[in-house]
Write a structure and sequence with these properties.
- By secondary structure, this protein is of the alpha+beta class.
- It folds into two domains: 41 residues; 32 residues, no CATH class.
- Helix content is 39%, strand content 18%.
- The chain contains two helices and three strands; from the N terminus they run H-H-E-E-E.
- The termini are far apart.
Amino acid sequence: MPSKEPYSESRTSTPDAGTSLKRVERFLRLLTWQMFFLLVILLYLALRPQAGRFQFTVAGEDVVVFDTASSRALAVKLQKQVMGAGDKAEPGAQPAGEESK
C-alpha cells in the first residue's frame, strides 16, 4: 500500500499555487486602491459646495459674493447711509443727495 503525502505539502509544492497566490494578492491590492479612490470621490461629492448657493466674505466695507453654481465672484462696496430721527427707509429708494445714473 503506497503511503500518502500530507495534504499541505502536496498543495504547496505545485508551481501553480505560487502564481495563483500572486494573482490573488495583485487583485486584492488593485481592489484596495479602487476602494480608496471611490471613497475619496464620494467624500468630495458630499463636502463640496452645493450648486445655486452663495458664499459671502465680508472684509471691512468690501463684500465678496461667490456663486458656486456659476463659479463667479462679485465684489460689492458697501455704502454708509445716515438717516435722521424721523426718516423711514423705503426699499429700493436711493439715499438723499445722490442722483440716479
